[in-house]
Amino acid sequence: MKSIVNAKIVTDKDVLEGYVLTFDKEIISLGKEVPNNVEIVDAKGLYLSAGFIDIHIHGSNGYDVMDATHEALEGISKSILETGTTSFLATTMTMSQEQITKALHNVQTFKQQEGAKVLGVHLEGPFINPIKHGAQDPQHIQKPNMELIEPFMDVVKMITIAPEVEGGREFIEQIEKNFPHILLSIGHSDASYNEAKESFSWGVAHSTHIFNAMNPLHHREPGIVGAILEADEVSCDVIADLVHIHPSFFKLLYRLKKEQLILITDAMRAGCMRCGVSEVGGQRVIVKDGEARLEDGTLAGSVLKINEALKNFYEYTDKITLPELINTVTAIPAKKLGLDVGFLKKGYKADLVLFDEEFRVHRSYINGVKTKLR
Ligand SMILES: [Zn+2]
After folding, report:
1. Which residue among the candidates 12, 64, 67, 266 is catalytic per the annotation?
2. Distance between Cα 93 and ligand 1 center (Å)
3. Does the residue 75 lie in any domain?
4. 310-340: b (≥16 Cβ within 10 Å) or e
5. Could you give the CA distance from residue 107 to residue 67 in angstroms, rounded to a whole number?
6. How far is the CA of 22 from the centre of ligand 1 (A)?
7. First CA to last CA across the chain, in angstroms?
8. Is the dihedral of CA 163, 269, 366, 49 positive or negative?
9. Residue 309: per-residue pLDDT
10. Whether residue 263 sits in one domain with residue 188
11. How much distance in Å is there from the Cα of 240 to the middle of ligand 1?
């Protein structure tokens, strides 16, 4: 059993000083007294919060979920520890049925040794609209069907889908009825405002990288963006890298979405790297100055780190408090996906991160065990 002392503890509501967090594999208590017989960890004034959760990450440090090897999952898991991420959804791309099946099977059979926890899979495509494919290879887009994913329902936790495509409604209703734990997210979609709103009534409860791979907000056709901003119960996520959306939207989005806003990285193979040539979904990617683009200039995911996303969002959102900020990568995704992490509350898994004013990560714990940061 360990007790962390001398930390500024960021809970989902407050920043507490003079408190002690005690944990084993799970969080035992958050109080003012140090219990007997514990190992004391001096945080030396650092911030302490629940470990960060990234629900949209394709790769990092040269590895990609679509490599479909255990080595790749391990490589991603270990490298993102330095960003404060302690759990994530391994996110697939629109590739051939065979490659997606391999990637899903790989996650299903992965026995994790160390690194950030693989919570399951976020299926980004192939059930998307070719008009809004972004950096997803359009030749592999499929009509929504259960066949592809049925053997993997134990690992699929989130699906990004274009609800307006043929078979979209049936698929969404079937998932909602039989697998209600799966988070259905509108994205890479050409849906109108009305179509988006309708999809919320079928079971779509989230939206993937708002503004990206969907029509922009228009005052006579509010589109998906308008529908999301209006719907209090629908959450959305944002790539806060200052490239995918203008930072002035951070403030507006936070004002409107509050408890329904999640920060993601959408990081690809070159995540945690700075520049060079890389690859995503079988396509060549040039990484330069913190931007990852296909050869035709299309943004191809990001090289963003989640702690940088927090820093960016904090900088451009003047009224957000630190607990509100940290909730966007802890409590909110945890609630949305029904996870046993993301809160500094008794009974939750002791996934923790210690960071400084600049959001630099100094130390993290997963299930109460100190991780090895690179
Ligand atoms: Zn993505």
Report:
1. 266
2. 7
3. yes
4. bbbbbebbeebeebbbbbbbbbbbbbbbebe
5. 11
6. 36
7. 25
8. negative
9. 97
10. yes
11. 13
Instruction: Say if residue 192 is in the same domain as residue 293.
Output: yes
CA pair distance 126, 300, nearest whole angstrom: 16
Classify residue 122: in a domain, yes or no.
yes
Give how many domains the chain has, as a whole number.
Answer: 2
* Residue 67 covered by a domain: yes
The pLDDT of residue 274: 63
Shared domain for 79 and 8, answered yes or no, is: no
CATH code, domain with 9 = 2.30.40.10
Q: Are residues 213 and 148 in the same domain?
A: yes
CA of 310 to the centre of ligand 1 (A): 18
pLDDT score, position 291: 85
- Please report the pLDDT score of residue 374 as a whole number: 67
Distance CA 365, CA 138 (A): 40
What's the residue count for the chain?
A: 374
Separation of CA 100 and ligand 1 centre (Å)? 14
Are residues 171 and 79 part of one domain?
yes
Does a structural domain hold residue 342? no
Please indicate whether residue 42 is annotated as part of the active site.
no
Say if strands 183-186 and 206-207 run parallel, antiparallel, or are unpaired. Answer: parallel
Domain that holds residue 91: 51-337
In this structure, the answer to whether residues 268 and 357 fall within a common structural domain is no
Rounded distance from Cα 266 to ligand 1 centre (Å)? 5
Q: Give the closest residue to 161 by CA, choosing from 149, 281, 152, 151.
A: 149
Quickly tell me which residue has 């520049």 as its tokens: 275
Q: Alpha-carbon distance 71 to 169, whole Å?
A: 37
Residue 373's pLDDT is what?
82
The two tokens of residue 94 are 């629109």
- Residue 302, beta-bridge partner list: 267, 291
Buried b / exposed e along 110-129 (16+ C-beta atoms within 10 A):
beeeebbbbbbbbbbbbbbb
What is the token pair recorded at 176? 């909602």
**What stretches in the chain show pLDDT beneath 70?**
274-275, 374
The C-alpha atoms of residue 333 and residue 329 are separated, in whole angstroms, by 6
Distance (angstroms) between ligand 1 centre and the Cα of 189 equals 13
- Assess whether 36 and 183 both reside in one domain: no
Are residues 57 and 36 part of one domain?
no
Tokens 């993601």 correspond to 264
